[in-house]
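dumping this here so i dont lose it
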């Protein structure tokens, strides 16, 4: 039953001589935050211009005209320019249970995507550098978006666009030539390569001639110099081996690891097409595309003054390759907001590559704010960073310490991992992705806050209740009237709204919507649990409350799964 459709029809039938569509009315109907404001509300200021009246007067007039006789509406109130609608509670309960029962364990799964192809590019760390918490955010957000799109019926493909090309690798080669004999790369290779990179950067800043040597080395790398290529391949293999440890902990997998180097032999076509279309100009010796007519003052560099490529060129080559290989409907880039200008540039330049508008219109940059240490911004150049592997292992260890006194918990090693990793993922996702963040592991592991462990714990509680009862009632055995108290209704309304929450997260590319929802749902179940005796001598009462517990368990489990978080068996 579509309550908004029913309410929109009642409002539409009560309005005279106003140019407003019923679907538009439905679009503006809200769910109030406070129960005393009804189950649904319509803001009458949407009609103020057309009716030439104050919203509060419109609300009062419509309240008198709306006919709720023989409808599911118990009453309508006009307050502060809003029409507040109160639905008969038994209809709310029946509608939610019927809706849930269709899918049960797959509740929330949808098929609006119709197998359209969505590419999600995320993580994309630089080889030979530590995987720090800046990379963690893109990995976690990207994985959540991958899950959300897949859940909604899209054919979703995950891409890890490795940073495995560019002048920094020439610097690393030059550094290794100077000091490689001092390092055993078979043990802790990333730390040692990072130290070499830090040293060569310091030397480049002191001596311009060293920086020039690095530029010449990059030319050699691009031209296939055997020594440079072999060393670069070794750095890449060592890096991927280390990155896989982190992806295994996070339970993240990729369909493609094609990094920047994969497109090195595909860049010339980009240059040729832009030349053919008259879009390349020379600026201070570099080949650029002028974008001032697009409102972008900074030109997009395609070739540097020394003739070598830049990452914009490789990204453009990747767009061409992905359009031809995947025939995508959307290509989503989960990359920090610091790259906003870069993506504005390449998305505009991509329109000059003779691609169908379907592809260029489907390019989306999903930006996010920065994670910072308490002492400030991180930098691999200066060695000021937090390694993700250390962070994750620390989270697992601390979760284990919290759980160590719980004698009823078996397999504490697995549960510590699920809780620790879940805490880190949830901490990254619980706020809007564009917000800057100071990461606090102790706060993330708080079992009593708005955290991953809290939501996991409440989900485990639903499991424990069902295990204690020993059965899950059939939907047909549920007495709806048992579930019309305020605590049950609040919980039911949240569960019924799960599919809309998922769609909102998808439309906004914002996983935090699901994270915040899971906290609200966990809190609502806690209130329901504390105010209602579930295991009950009255079978009808027990069956109804158990079924609502089952609905909560499935919804919380599926919400966490979309975020990439596992639910332990016990906590």
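and the seq i came up w/
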């Amino acid at each position: 039953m579509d309550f908004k459709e029913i309410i929109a029809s009642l409002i539409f039938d009560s309005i005279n001589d106003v140019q407003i569509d019923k679907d538009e009315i439905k679009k503006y109907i809200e769910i109030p935050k406070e129960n005393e404001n009804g189950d649904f509300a319509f803001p009458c200021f949407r009609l103020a211009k057309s009716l030439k009246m104050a919203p509060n007067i419109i609300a009062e007039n419509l309240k008198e005209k709306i006919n709720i006789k023989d409808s599911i509406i118990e009453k309508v109130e006009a307050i502060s320019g809003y029409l507040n609608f109160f639905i008969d509670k038994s209809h709310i309960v029946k509608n939610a249970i019927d809706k849930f029962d269709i899918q049960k364990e797959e509740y929330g799964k949808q098929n609006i995507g119709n197998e359209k192809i969505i590419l999600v590019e995320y993580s994309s760390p630089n080889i030979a550098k530590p995987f720090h918490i800046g990379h963690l955010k893109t990995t976690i957000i990207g994985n959540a978006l991958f899950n959300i799109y897949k859940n909604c019926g899209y054919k979703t493909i995950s891409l890890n666009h490795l940073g495995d090309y560019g002048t920094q690798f020439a610097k690393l080669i030059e550094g290794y030539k100077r000091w490689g004999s001092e390092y055993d790369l078979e043990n802790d290779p990333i730390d040692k390569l990072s130290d070499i990179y830090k040293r060569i950067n310091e030397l480049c800043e002191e001596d311009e001639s060293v920086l020039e040597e690095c530029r010449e080395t990059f030319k050699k790398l691009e031209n296939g110099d055997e020594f440079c290529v072999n060393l670069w391949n070794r750095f890449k293999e060592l890096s991927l081996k280390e990155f896989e440890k982190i992806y295994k902990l996070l339970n993240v997998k990729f369909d493609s690891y094609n990094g920047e180097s994969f497109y090195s032999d595909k860049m010339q076509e980009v240059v040729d097409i832009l030349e053919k279309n008259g879009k390349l100009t020379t600026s201070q010796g570099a080949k650029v595309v002028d974008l001032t007519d697009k409102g972008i003052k900074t030109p997009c560099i395609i070739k540097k003054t020394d003739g070598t490529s830049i990452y914009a060129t490789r990204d453009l080559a990747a767009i061409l390759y992905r359009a031809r290989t995947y025939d995508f409907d959307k290509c989503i880039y989960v990359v920090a907001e610091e790259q906003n200008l870069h993506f504005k540039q390449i998305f505009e330049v991509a329109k000059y590559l003779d691609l169908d508008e379907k592809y260029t219109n489907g390019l989306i940059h999903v930006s996010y704010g920065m994670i910072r240490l308490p002492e400030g911004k991180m930098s691999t150049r200066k060695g000021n960073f937090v390694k993700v592997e250390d962070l994750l292992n620390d989270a697992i260890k601390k979760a284990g310490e919290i759980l160590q006194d719980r004698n009823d918990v078996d397999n504490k090693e697995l549960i510590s991992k699920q809780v620790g990793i879940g805490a880190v993922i949830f901490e990254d996702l619980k706020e809007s992705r564009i917000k800057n963040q100071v990461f606090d592991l102790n706060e993330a592991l708080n079992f009593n806050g708005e955290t991953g462990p809290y939501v996991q714990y409440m989900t485990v509680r639903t499991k424990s209740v069902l295990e204690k009862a020993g059965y899950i009632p059939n939907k047909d055995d549920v007495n709806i009237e048992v579930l019309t108290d305020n605590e049950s209704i609040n919980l039911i309304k949240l569960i019924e709204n799960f599919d809309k929450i998922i769609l909102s997260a998808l439309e906004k590319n914002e996983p935090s919507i699901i994270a915040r929802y899971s906290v609200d749902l966990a809190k609502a179940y806690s209130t329901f649990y504390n105010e209602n005796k579930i295991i009950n001598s009255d079978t009808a009462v027990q069956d109804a409350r158990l079924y609502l517990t089952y609905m909560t368990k499935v919804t919380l489990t599926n919400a966490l799964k979309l975020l990439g978080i596992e639910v332990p068996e016990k906590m």
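The longest strand covers residues 73-79.
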